[in-house]
């Protein structure tokens, strides 16, 4: 048992073993909530079985036996006659096996798949980090005064990245990173198309604006012309109305003169009429 942690530490030098080790660690770290739910389900059904048997059977006599029994139940190790004793035991048996062996098992598989994806996403970088950690651990046992082992300068030769380097990197980056790269590339392409469409729309809007300005200028000119015509019409109407008022005044004067003349004539006729004889 004491050799196992050391063996795991040495295995960090292999990228594949380091990756699998990270998968296991990540999965374990992602499982507390799942394990809490599993413990609750096991306790719930375990004590339900114990209450149904009134704690009189060997399988459900103590808390420790209850824990072992429900654990063995999900592994398929159980006494069939015990769960066929009554309908309640049978119902709880089917409910527990369905919930744990089907539902929770699939949840665990999905959880492990997610942990695998998260680890695969950084597998290359994590592998190099583990190698570096192993080198540091090994260097701690060496003589640091030896210039051959610990030179003042470290020269690193790195191959030039080819044009297809991004495609080669997909082999270790995982599906999520590759999917992100595809989404990013598609987003950039769509952004370029959107910019092109925006430019065309802006050009069309500029043309429409020019047409609207031209039409607006013509409409304003027509309105100005109509305003001038209306002003002239108003002036003519004013002159006509003035003439009509003048003619009306003259007619009224003539009528007044005629009425005055008629009254004078009638008065003259009255004066020349002879008086009747007595």
UniProtKB/TrEMBL annotation:
Stored PANTHER family: INACTIVE, TRANSIENT RECEPTOR POTENTIAL ION CHANNEL PROTEIN
GO annotations of cellular component type: plasma membrane
Protein name (database record): Ion transport domain-containing protein
Single GO biological process annotation from the record: calcium ion import across plasma membrane
Species annotation: Prymnesium polylepis
Keyword Coiled coil: yes
Higher taxonomy: Eukaryota, Haptista, Haptophyta, Prymnesiophyceae, Prymnesiales
Source organism superkingdom: Eukaryota
GO molecular function, one term: monoatomic ion channel activity
Coiled coil spans: 226-271
């Amino acid at each position: 048992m004491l050799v196992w942690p050391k063996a795991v530490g040495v295995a960090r030098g292999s990228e594949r073993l380091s990756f699998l080790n990270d998968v296991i660690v990540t999965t374990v770290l992602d499982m507390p909530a799942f394990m809490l739910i599993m413990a609750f389900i096991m306790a719930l059904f375990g004590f339900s079985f114990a209450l149904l048997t009134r704690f009189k059977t060997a399988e459900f006599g103590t808390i420790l036996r209850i824990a072992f029994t429900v654990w063995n139940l999900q592994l398929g190790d159980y006494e069939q006659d015990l769960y066929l004793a009554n309908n309640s035991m049978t119902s709880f048996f089917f409910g527990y096996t369905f919930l744990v062996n089907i539902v929770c098992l699939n949840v665990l598989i999905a959880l492990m798949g997610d942990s695998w994806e998260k680890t695969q996403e950084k597998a290359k970088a994590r592998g190099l980090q583990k190698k570096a950690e192993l080198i540091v651990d090994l260097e701690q046992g060496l003589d640091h005064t030896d210039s051959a082992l610990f030179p003042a300068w470290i020269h690193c030769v790195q191959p030039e990245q080819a044009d297809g380097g991004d495609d080669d990197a997909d082999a270790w980056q995982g599906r999520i990173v590759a999917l992100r790269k595809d989404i990013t590339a598609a987003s950039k392409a769509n952004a370029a198309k959107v910019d092109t469409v925006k430019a065309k729309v802006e050009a069309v809007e500029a043309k429409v604006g020019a047409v609207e300005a031209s039409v607006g200028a013509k409409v304003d000119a027509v309105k100005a012309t109509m305003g001038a015509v209306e002003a002239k019409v108003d002036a003519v109407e004013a002159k006509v109305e003035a003439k009509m008022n003048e003619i009306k005044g003259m007619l009224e004067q003539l009528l007044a003169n005629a009425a005055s003349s008629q009254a004078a004539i009638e008065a003259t006729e009255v004066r020349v009429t002879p008086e009747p004889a007595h």
